Amino acid sequence: MAQQARRQRRSLAVEFDLQAPERWRVLADGNGNGITTADVSLGIDAPQTPWTLVFREGRARLAVTRDLPGADGTGTVPRGSTPIQLGVASRLVFTPRGTSAAGSVYVAGRGDRAYAIRVLGTTQRIRLSCLGTSGTWETC
Fold this sequence. Notes:
globular; mainly beta; 2 helices
């Protein structure tokens, strides 16, 4: 997505549907001012893909099924919290300048397994972490 934003010279966003958290779609900036809720509702920042299931098979799901340490190293994410922790909007925005929104997406796996997908805003790096037996995030 980050490379596509640079190639298209406009912001692109992965938007999650919080009413049905297993779905996502890609939005594109239509007027050069970034992706905003107002522009999405007016159809200016339009969907580039249809809503798609995040997980097509398997037992993984977007969920916080137990109290977790914050993937950013601060605080706790309580059980039942939204698994999409990207700020006010449920969108992960990538800009053509090489930056992105920062945040975390939490995934519940089989049994008691927990994963965090962490996006670092200034670099657009994405890191997958697994919750280790010691209760801290580790590289998977």
